[in-house]
Amino acid sequence: MSKLNPKQQEAMTYVSGPLLVLAGAGSGKTSVITQKIAYLIEQCNIPAERITAVTFTNKAAREMKARVSSLMPKEKTRGLTVSTFHQFGLQFLRYELLHTPLKGNFSIMDADDSKRLLMELMMRDNLSGAESRELVGKAIKFISDWKNDLIEPDKAMETLDDPEDMIFANLYALYERNLRAYNAVDFDDLIVLPAKILSENQQLRDKWQNRIRYLLVDEYQDTNTAQYELIKLIVGPTGKFTVVGDDDQSIYAWRGARPENMALLKEDFPKLKVIKLEQNYRSTNRILNAANTVIMNNEHLFEKALWSDKGQGEKIRIINCRNDDDEAERVAKEIVAHKLRNGNEWEQYAVLYRSNFQARMLEAQLRQFQVPYKLSGGQSFFARSEIKDVMGYLRLILNPEDDSAFLRIVNTPKRGLGPATLEKLGLFSQEHSISLLASCTHGGLPHVLPSKAYSTLKEFGDFIEHYTRELDQHPDPVPLVRQMIDETGYIDFVRSDSKTPQQEKGRLDNIEVLYTSIQALINRAEDDDDKTIDAVIRKLVLLDMLEQQQEEENTNKVNLMTLHAAKGLEFDFVYIMGLEEELLPHRNSIIAETIEEERRLMYVGITRARRELTLTLAAQRRGGGQMRTTTQSRFLEELPEEHLDWPANAKKKKAERDPTVVANEYMSNIKALLKKKNM
Ligand code: ATP
Ligand code: MG
User: Fold this and answer.
1) From the alpha carbon of 3, which atom of ligand 1 is closest?
2) How far apart are CA 556 and CA 542, in angstroms?
3) What's the distance, CA 256 to chain centroid?
4) pLDDT tens digits, one per residue of 31-84
5) Which domain holds residue 359?
């Protein structure tokens, strides 16, 4: 662990009041938080369980915990909370269940579930007459924005300019009612509900303010209104907290983040101390210079001047490619050649891009060259349909009230139930105020449904209820889960539904991976309460939503991720792809005139690099079924010319060989090796 500089030291030891550490990328903000946790425990004698640190992703939380543990004996860190806002909120709701509108077994709806529910509501109430995706997308955005701004359904209408948007306000009210009726919360509720409960209950506030003696928040610039309110409610008026952030790295405005919260802190906590850090410990000066120059084009809340003692470093390379295929191939070859030339590890490399689709071609190329890679922030394991289906069965078994799970699986695999039947079932469940599952086995159902539909539903209901009983407290649940899924005929369904043998194998493998993970979580659980399948599934559902990235055991791989997912991370060699107008900056941002946010994203990308940065662009790119000619990104023009190395004026270093030749050689070596192995 590196020794902190005097400014960092000051930030670490300042505990007498609220503190904001405001500093550019790579200046050691996260390092300050980690060391400060250790300082609070060891020097200030604050018990670990009275300290809470909030980070942006599960990955960051895990890393932070590990770093703290490396600074002191493990016993001392027991009870320390290092989590994301959402994890923290979930824990809060569990503790304070009695103060919530929820019952014990509440379920958590992920984005996909929320969407399905909204779709249902729109159809059921004929709000739109159409199940148009666009409308649902808009509704989700409206509702999430309202929630993150802590605006309740009855106040939502007042915020609307356009009377046509009224349907979204109505839908919001309906959606909330349904969530509560299903005893479910959505992702936003994990923050919004705790904030609401705390703001309405002085006693509870006192309890939590007393319980959390010190709060630390990383990536503070990306907190939204609800999160900021939650912070204020937890720390109370004395404000025992340290938050660290960089307004230039605020990249989640589209999710309600408010960089103004930085300025608000000063108003809400007049005693706020602000410490600025100016030395960057991550990057070479050319990289820093590029980052600083680009971000200068934005308006600033706070000026920062970063410097580093890592020398000038290499120029930033810009590679012009003919088209997107060529770009993917070039990046793959460059990485192979660079690695071989310098004897590096794969994990030192990262390829960043604006949109997930850009990874597809690159993945194919990397596979072609046998380069191990890991993709984070793409389609997560849990977002895959087979996983969601199996999880749907598990969720329904564990929580018979979970109507969204019911709707997902009642006809998967196909049981011949049409929309008319399901609508009638829905009405029936509303009339009797019972869940959809309970309706299936209700004595009154045969009177409203044709006998065939009824018997299918009854059979389905009995099946689920049977396994609910079987799985409850079962000492070895995983084989039972497997048996249940087999009995549903789901595996046969996957076989017949897959388009290629590879797809079929992939999907079946995924299901196996799910079983294995459930077993592993059960084995790993420390106390008995966590060993139940119920606890494990809850954990999986949460992991799924919060993480959106697969945990990888083998870490020596090239990192592929979106610019958003790269926040807070660092790599020796960084490639940013697709420096084109409409891609970076993104088309939507150009239309919405939110270029500044895209520029911050560019800034985040550049500042991930420790030693070398390469930017690529394609002259032509596929889109909408045809090749289109692209325009180079405005951000390229904003970079400092003197630190760039364009291919046209790139003089090849003598010893350096053409990457294509090197990569091809590497390929044939591998092929030879594989051949040998087979023999
Ligand atoms: P970001 O804004 O990207 O989140 P950050 O401000 O959180 O960056 P860190 O990730 O904490 O910065 O630190 C960047 C790098 O600098 C890390 O590798 C860290 O170990 C190193 N570092 C931080 N402080 C020091 C120091 N005083 N001496 C040497 N290295 C340091
Ligand atoms: Mg950081």
Assistant:
1) 27
2) 27
3) 15
4) 999 999 999 999 999 999 999 999 988 778 888 888 898 888 888 999 999 999
5) 288-372+556-676
User: What would the pLDDT profile of 385-405 be if each residue is shown by its tens digit?
Assistant: 888 899 999 989 988 888 888
- How far apart, in whole angstroms, are the C-alpha atoms of residue 110 and residue 112? 5
Confidence at residue 194, expressed as pLDDT on a 0 to 100 scale: 97
| Interatomic CA distance for residues 631 and 568, integer angstroms | 30
> Is 24 annotated to bind ligand?
yes
Answer yes or no: is 44 within a domain: yes
- Alpha carbons within 13 angstroms on the beta-carbon side of residue 180 total 8
Q: Do 580 and 541 reside in the same domain of the chain?
A: no
Q: Clarify whether residues 152 and 297 are in a common domain.
A: no
Using a cut of 0.80, tell me whether the model's pTM lies above it: no
pLDDT at 379: 57
At residue 185's C-alpha, the angle toward residues 193 and 533, to 5°, is 120
Q: Per the omega criterion (within 30 degrees of 0), is the bond before 372 cis?
A: no
Please enumerate, as own/partner, the contacts of 328-332 that have beta carbons within 8 Å and a separation of 24 or more. Answer: 328/361, 328/362, 328/364, 328/365, 329/365, 330/616, 330/659, 331/362, 331/365, 331/575, 331/577, 331/616, 332/362, 332/365, 332/366, 332/368, 332/369, 332/371, 332/663
Determine the average pLDDT of the residues in 563-587. Answer: 95
Ligand nearest to the CA of 608: 1
d(CA 127, CA 119) in angstroms, rounded, equals 10
Active site residue 677: no
* Catalytic residue of the set 77, 87, 221, 249: 249
